Amino acid sequence: MTNPSFSAVLRLLGANARLEERFSGGLGSLHGLALKEVLLLMHLAQAPRRRLSRIDLAKRLYVSPSTVTRMAAPLEKLKMVSREADPRDARLAYVVLTEAGLELVANAQASLEIMAADVFRDRWTQPEIATLADLLGRLTAGQPGDLG
Amino acid sequence: MTNPSFSAVLRLLGANARLEERFSGGLGSLHGLALKEVLLLMHLAQAPRRRLSRIDLAKRLYVSPSTVTRMAAPLEKLKMVSREADPRDARLAYVVLTEAGLELVANAQASLEIMAADVFRDRWTQPEIATLADLLGRLTAGQPGDLG
DNA sequence: CCGGTATACTTCCATATGCAAGTAATTAGG
DNA sequence: CCTAATTACTTGCATATGGAAGTATACCGG
Predict the structure, then answer these.
(1) Residue B59: what pLDDT?
(2) Alpha helices for chain A (secondary structure H)
(3) Average pLDDT of span A10-19
(4) pLDDT at residue A64, as a whole number
(5) Which residues does residue B93 pair with via DSSP β-bridges, in sequence order?
(6) Paired sense of beta strands B81-85 and A81-85, if any
(7) Which CATH number is associated with domain B15-139?
(8) Which of A82, A106, B18, B138 gives a 20 to 30 Å CA spacing to B27?
(9) If we measure between CA atoms, which residue out of B88, B86, B61 comes closest to residue B75?
(10) Chain D positions with any atom < 7 A from a protein CB
(11) Alpha-carbon distances of A83 from A65, A87, A102, B83, rounded to whole Å
(12) Which residues on chain A are in Cβ contact (under 8 Å) with B20?
């Protein structure tokens, strides 16, 4: 492949598939959560007052609003999040991280960080990892609520 | 985020979501194909005798064998691929790229390359793109049939 | 204040996907 | 050879997801 842009894109797609596969297994067995659920909780954990509207969550997770509705439902049954209306705007239904949810996401994030470190454990230097993170950050820049 | 490994992983997930969204629209309207279908055809195009077993395709695309079966069916109806049995091993059902499929994938790949270049058009230097491609390549290394 | 438009959310429907089970064919061991 | 295990593929089922349509609420121009 002689076209670096194209090569970068193709490899990014492949790397993503590998990482998702790798993380899904570990997370599910450790905390009973899917990767996307952990990301949802992480967004809540870093949001002001630990709450976000479903629309905001959808944008941050790159999914549709209907998916957020359906992802929040089981988390609400597990008491990891609660639902709260906005006093000013009755259309808004915030997803709010509970104390239990905060604990869970802290643990899940710790597991994720370990798994992330494992990805680079062999044959990567710290500067290389930092460079990769920096370059990838420029591909996601301009979005609100960047987690990393 | 102070952990570079974790940051890199999170950003990779986000960048992937953005790129898939971006490419799906353009490809679909231009060639009537989904991104994953183009990748399937690209793998065939670079394979010896332009054919791969469904199992091999599944590994290269990071999907299950059943998904390959179902992705191949519509492409076969469109005469972009054909099905051929292995003369030595009757279990193998190769997906073979037709001439029409070869033409289609060449065009679709050209579109993809343009879209990939667009991703980096602003604020990226050639060495930066090359570095990104190189680093991402190390995350996908060790897989057979790397496209990029 | 009123009607039209925009926004937030939910639900219905169609599609995509993985896994488990089933079928067919090959290989390995005795 | 024969049987058991393995491999390749397909299909049924359950789940996940996006988009369209529906509902409720808020905003805006007059």
Answers:
(1) 97
(2) 4-31, 35-46, 54-61, 65-77, 99-120, 126-140
(3) 96
(4) 98
(5) B85
(6) unpaired
(7) 1.10.10.10
(8) B138
(9) B61
(10) 7-12, 16-20, 24-27
(11) 15, 13, 15, 52
(12) 13
E strands within B45-116? 51-52, 81-85, 93-97
Which backbone phi and psi does B90 adopt, to 5 degrees? -70, -5
- Looking at residues B31-49, what average pLDDT do you find? 95
Distance CA B74, CA B147 (A): 23
Q: According to the model, what pLDDT value does residue A144 have?
A: 79
Question: Tens digits of per-residue pLDDT, A71-114?
Answer: 999 999 999 999 999 999 999 999 999 999 999 999 999 999 99
* CA atoms of B86 and B88, how far apart (whole Å): 5
- Look up the CATH architecture of domain A4-140: Orthogonal Bundle (1.10)
Residue B20 has pLDDT above 80, yes or no: yes
Contact B86, B94 (CB under 8 A): yes
Q: Could you say which residues 8-47 of protein chain B have a Cβ atom less than 7 A away from any atom in strand D? A: none
Distance CA A88, CA A82 (A): 18
* Rounded alpha-carbon distances, angstroms, from residue A54 to A42, A101, B76, B89, B142: 14, 17, 41, 53, 40
For chain A, the domains span 4-140
| Closest by Cα among A145, A122, A146 to A51 | A145
B 17-56 residues, CB < 7 A, strand C: 34, 36
Rounded (10°) angle between helices B126-140 and A126-140: 110
pLDDT tens, position by position, B70-113: 999 999 999 999 999 999 999 999 999 999 999 999 999 999 99
